[in-house]
Design brief:
Order of helices and strands: HHHHHHHHHHHHHHHHHHHH
Strand content: under 5%
Number of helices: 20
Radius of gyration: 22 Å
Shape: globular
Length: 461
């Protein structure tokens, strides 16, 4: 453990960057839609209950592992485990998850850049029909040159920021980007209040509606549980790495609350932007990528000053996606610095090339290799990569982390509690051991199993 290890310059920097790791495009294209689908405010309450019961404890687990070990996923197990134990073998597949994630997440981030530039340069036609928006998005996916160029641009920019170091690069640029993201979102949400469809949109979004839960209560509970778990991106060391750069001034429960609050607030506010606009212009909101690249493109093309609003919206989305790229790439670079005797700039250069090469296969999966189906049911290459991360590495990694802090051969519960309660703020109770070891671990295992059932089209509800 090196005394020269960098630390965040400010607490705000840590919170915003850790939140940037958690905030992703799923906050915008999934959370608002499933909220409207499953009873509005009732679903939000169910989600918040799971966030409190699962998400925040998992954040404290990763942060404690990171801060106690002062290391990335590459060495955190080694620094905390009991002698002759085997926990450190987990680092290899968890670290691999970071590479797999970046190989396809950079492509999706590239879509944000493409649409941001289209609106910024005014090339989106006025009153664009939804059918034409679909054709445009399909055309982008079918062009590997456009996909690779946009992906390479955002990946290289993210790498350049990470190459500057934690304080001079990651904190210096991610902090103002996250502040800009929040300002843009609040500004656009206020703008939505003036739209004719605001009342109908918010009614669809947040009006408590028990009828939507009739015969769908199990689906709603699973959706809320899954969202509370996946929204914070625990399980691959992305949160732990920023815990390793923390000071001991504040207790981890406080920091976890701030991260979860920011993540949830951004997801909730996104609905205030999307639904009033869709209802104003009579465009049915979809789930998934269509919500952003089809529905919202059509919405902005119908607005007065639509190019301006479209530019701001996709700038917001671009920042959200790039902040995740930077956070995950920092985890990879920190791991490389700990495992190999190389400089940060060399580690960035080598790993940037690795990510660019690894992204070629997912890029081709949208066009030249679009007929390739790995898991069946039309599951393409990118879907398979997402399956590896979302349905395997994230839940299994989170389960391993929970077992690690509650195991006598791992970090040990006593040391976890001690680490959580350093500094000022709210304490984590020692008495929660049984909850973490058995209830929380079981809940994660349930997420893992249900995820598999859904992938293979086995209807549980």
């Amino acid at each position: 453990m090196s005394d020269s290890r960098e630390q965040f310059k400010s607490r705000l920097g840590f919170i915003l960057i850790a939140a940037g790791c958690a905030v992703g495009i799923g906050n915008v294209w999934r959370f608002p839609y499933i909220t409207g689908q499953y009873g509005g405010a009732i679903f939000v309450l169910i989600y918040l209950a799971f966030l409190f019961a699962m998400g925040i404890p998992l954040l404290t687990v990763e942060l404690a592992i990171g801060r106690a070990s002062k290391a990335s996923i590459a060495m955190c197990y080694d620094n905390l485990e009991a002698p002759n134990s085997k926990w450190h073998y987990n680092k290899w597949w968890q670290l691999a998850g970071n590479y797999i994630l970046l190989s396809f997440y950079g492509i999706i981030t590239g879509w944000m850049l493409y649409y941001f530039l289209r609106f910024a340069f005014g090339t989106v036609p006025h009153n664009l029909p939804k059918e034409e928006a679909i054709a445009t998005f399909t055309g982008i996916l079918s062009d590997p040159v456009i996909l690779f160029t946009c992906m390479a641009t955002v990946v290289v920019v993210s790498c350049m920021i990470v190459a500057m170091g934690l304080v001079k690069g990651v904190e210096r640029y991610t902090k103002p980007l996250m502040i800009l993201l929040i300002v843009l979102l609040i500004f656009m949400a206020i703008r939505s209040c003036t739209m004719p469809g605001f009342a109908d949109g918010i009614s669809f979004y947040l009006k408590p509606d028990l009828s939507k839960l009739e015969n769908h209560l199990g689906e709603a509970i699973w959706a809320a549980m899954g969202q509370a778990f996946f929204t914070l991106s625990t399980g691959m060391g992305g949160i732990a790495i920023f815990g390793s750069y923390m000071s001991d001034h504040h207790r981890l429960l406080n920091e976890a609350w701030f991260i979860a609050f920011l993540d949830t607030a951004i997801a909730l506010l996104a609905g205030f932007v999307i639904f009033p606009a869709c209802f104003t212009y009579g465009i049915n909101p979809d789930a998934g990528p269509n919500l952003l690249f089809v529905s919202m493109t059509s919405v902005f093309s119908n607005m007065t000053l639509g190019s301006v609003w479209g530019t701001l919206f996709f700038l917001f989305m671009l920042i959200a996606a790039v902040s995740t790229l930077i956070a995950v790439f920092e985890n990879i670079i920190a791991a490389n610095l700990e495992m190999f005797s190389i400089t940060r700039k060399k580690a960035v250069l080598v790993n940037c090339l690795i990510i660019l090469v690894a992204s070629v296969l997912p890029v081709l999966g949208f066009n030249i290799l679009s007929n390739v189906s790995i898991l069946g049911h039309g599951t393409g290459i990118t879907d398979f990569f997402d399956f590896l991360v979302s349905n395997n590495i994230l839940p299994i990694g989170s389960l391993v982390f929970v077992l690690f802090v509650t195991s006598k051969s791992g970090m040990k519960w006593e040391r976890y509690i001690e680490e959580c309660n350093k500094g000022i703020g709210f304490r984590v109770s020692y008495k929660l051991y049984t909850y973490y070891r058995y209830i929380l671990a079981t809940a994660i295992a349930v997420i893992l199993v249900i995820g598999y059932l859904q992938v293979f089209n086995i209807d549980l509800f």
